[in-house]
Design a protein that fits this description.
Alpha-Beta Plaits; about 400 residues; about 35% strand; five-stranded mixed beta sheet; alpha+beta; single chain; about 35% helix
């Protein structure tokens, strides 16, 4: 199973995620009971009413959290809130995975405040996050995730809308996304984006849950068979879109997915020798693949289109190489999701003509069919030693590997 969290339009908050999990099938009574049981660990706060109800948001039916509370304080120490959350999940009797998740969420929130204000974690005080809302969100989400058995599922996230404009809170007014949101997402694998909502769409609690819950970030919904969909409504209303978080539960196909960068440039004044050398240099810089195509550009000029596939961390090095080696004045950059057949790397010792060789190969299984491919460098080396062609060497090695693997 795979879970896809979709905050592309309306962002995410703790209550939106909680409600979408309820819509996905989490036990409302178990969640409400667990939250009420946790109220005793959060001093000076009383939950007067808590319920989930179906509402319409711009034509989309979704669950919304109804929460009425009575509180008489303006701030709490982060350590107090952390203790209340830890005591709550322990008291409810959740699993170790659930306890670890809940603790990680509040730790992320405390760490972000500590980094922003330059103070020790034990000195962090919350203002907006000091409400029992925070406990309700974290504890409720943890109960829902365990009830749906999602801690053992693959969870991926689409780009997260953070809104735009400015946001005003206890420390004044600043541009959106605020420092806390940026600090939480810093060094995570999640992608954020702004829009014209002129509001904060992603809250610190929602951000903390995401960075501790998701395994992977993708730009587009992966190829899956949809089994169920959950919709969780936020408290605000917007004129141009539904303030709703969407969660999809489905069955993933046999492929893995990831995102890569594609770098492209046209060069019309570079020799074949330079292009051949370029392939070697870019490969050394970590390119996943490089292709060079012939073409015709403006004024009928012959050209070469250089296309490089690489990961985010290698983009800068490869761009430097492209510019320095070809003299190009521009490089197009795009992001592409790709499907990858899962494979594993193996090494075996094979004996040919009385000599032993170490052979590396990749094995993959697709639709119950197993195949493997021998590393070309090994084929080349062994073919030279036994004085046979690459094709002959491959046939001999495949027979030996099939015997060892019993394929």
């Amino acid at each position: 199973m795979v879970i896809v969290i979709d905050p592309q339009i309306a962002g995410i908050s703790g209550d939106m995620l909680l409600c979408s999990l309820v819509d996905l099938g989490a036990d409302q009574n178990k969640i409400i009971s667990g939250i009420k049981e946790s109220e005793k660990f959060f001093s000076n706060s009383t939950i007067k009413k808590i319920a989930f109800e179906k509402i319409q948001k711009h034509g989309v039916q979704a669950f919304q959290l109804l929460l009425e509370i009575d509180e008489n304080f303006h701030e709490k120490k982060g350590s107090e809130i952390k203790k209340a959350i830890i005591d709550s999940v322990s008291n409810i009797g959740l699993s170790e995975k659930a306890k670890s998740f809940a603790e990680s969420c509040i730790d992320t929130l405390i760490s972000s405040e500590s980094a922003i204000h330059g103070i020790p974690k034990e000195s962090v005080h919350f203002h907006e996050a000091s409400s029992i809302d925070t406990l309700v969100d974290v504890v409720g989400i943890t109960i829902a995730l365990e009830d749906l058995c999602l801690f053992d599922e693959k969870i991926i996230c689409l780009p997260i809308s953070v809104g735009g404009g400015s946001v005003t809170f206890s420390h004044g007014t600043m541009s959106n996304p605020a420092s806390a949101i940026l600090e939480i997402f810093k060094n995570s694998n999640l992608i954020i984006k702004g829009n014209d909502a002129n509001e904060e769409l992603t809250t610190p609690t929602g951000a903390c849950v995401l960075v501790n819950l998701t395994h992977e970030s993708v730009n587009f919904c992966p190829s899956i068979k949809v089994d169920s969909v959950g919709y969780g409504a936020g408290q605000k209303d917007f004129e141009n879109f539904s303030n709703v978080l969407k969660i999809i539960r489905g069955t993933e196909n046999h492929f893995k997915t990831d995102s890569v960068k594609i770098l492209e440039t046209n060069v019309d004044d570079v020799s074949g020798e330079i292009l051949g050398n370029l392939i070697e240099k870019i490969t050394e810089k970590g390119a996943l693949d490089i292709s060079i195509y012939n073409g015709i550009t403006k004024k009928g000029r012959p050209t070469h289109l250089v296309s490089v596939i690489c990961t985010d961390e290698n983009v800068d090095k490869i761009i430097d190489t492209l510019v320095l080696e070809t003299g190009t004045l521009g490089i197009r950059i795009s992001t592409s999701d790709r499907f990858i057949v899962p494979r594993s790397t193996h090494n075996v010792t094979v004996t040919l003509n009385g000599d032993s060789f170490q052979v590396n190969y990749k094995k993959f299984v697709f639709k119950d069919k197993t195949n493997f491919k021998i590393e070309f460098d090994d084929l080349k080396t062994i073919s030279n030693i036994i004085n046979k062609s690459i094709k002959e060497t491959e046939i001999l090695l495949r027979k030996e590997i099939e015997k060892l693997e019993k394929l």
